[in-house]
Amino acid sequence: SANQPGSGVGRLGLAPADKPVLRLAGVERRYVQGERTLDVLRGAELEIRAGEIVALIAPSGAGKSTLLQLAGLLERPDGGEVFLSGRAAGKLDDAERTAIRRLEIGFVYQFHHLLPEFTALENVMLPQMIRGLDGKTASERAKELLSYMKLGERVGHRPSELSGGEQQRVAIARAVANAPRLLLADEPTGNLDPKTAHYVFDALSALVRASGLAALIATHNMDLAERMDRRITLEEGKVVEM
Ligand code: ADP
Ligand code: MG
């Protein structure tokens, strides 16, 4: 129904389900660094459909984080267009962009950015409360997600009382708390040892598979990338399939 998260909000209306969840068309992004201009993205093209997990693998400085920030509507491109479920982001005002970001996109970073004074449960409840859900509903969904991430016994712990892998699993649960269409992860296991990285990735992909969302995951971990549906890289500012 139109009240479900992920199906649009207010005058954004329902997003067509047949469109790719994310499409980049001729996306350009440049940074001015003192005297010189750095062209990071030079006409990037990309399509990701619901249910796909795509690995973004490229050396440091290639533009992975830049691409994720543009896809997540945290930045605006200097050229080209970002489409989310068929809607051109450039045509949306700030309020509409914020609504899409809150309701349709989940973010996971290398460092968890959990709120230290809140428990795991409260961290996963918070985005739902901001969206306007009542505490009981938010708490039930948070518990469900945390048990799915095998953190059922840890819901009352603060981030400082959790291991690195557990903190990342809470961050993943939080990222999908509002049932987004798109999950953007920027080196989500980059701070973890290989064994923990695998465990966290398994939990992440199970959750992505179960919820049918699209995921774009920047990683340096080739083992993990091998297990995703597709692998892309950045070459001279363009997306190249591997
Ligand atoms: P990656 O995530 O692949 O390491 P980034 O997207 O972070 O790459 O950065 C790509 C390039 O753009 C780097 O050379 C970086 O220094 C530069 N860059 C990124 N963000 C900014 C910014 N806000 N201002 C200036 N230069 C930036
Ligand atoms: Mg980066």
The mean pLDDT is: 91
Query: Strand-residue fraction?
Result: 25-35%
Q: What is the approximate shape?
A: globular
Report the helical percentage: 25-40%
How many strands in all? 10
Structure annotation, total helices: 7
Largest sheet composition: 6 strands, mixed
Low-confidence stretches: 1-11
Distance between the termini: 38 Å
Order of helices and strands: EEEHEEHEHHHEHEHEE
What value does the Rg take, in angstroms?
Answer: 18 Å
Bound heterogens, unique = adenosine-5'-diphosphate, magnesium ion
Structural class category: alpha/beta
Structural overview:
The protein has 242 residues and is an alpha/beta fold. Helix content is 33%, strand content 25%. The strands form two sheets. The protein has a six-stranded mixed sheet with strand order 6-7-8-3-9-10. A four-stranded antiparallel sheet has the order 2-1-4-5, covered by helices on one side. A hairpin with a 2-residue loop joins strand 4 (79-84) and strand 5 (87-88). Helix 3 (120-130) crosses helix 4 (135-148) and helix 3 runs parallel beside helix 5. The protein is globular and about 50 Å long. Residues 64-65, 186 line the site of magnesium ion (MG).
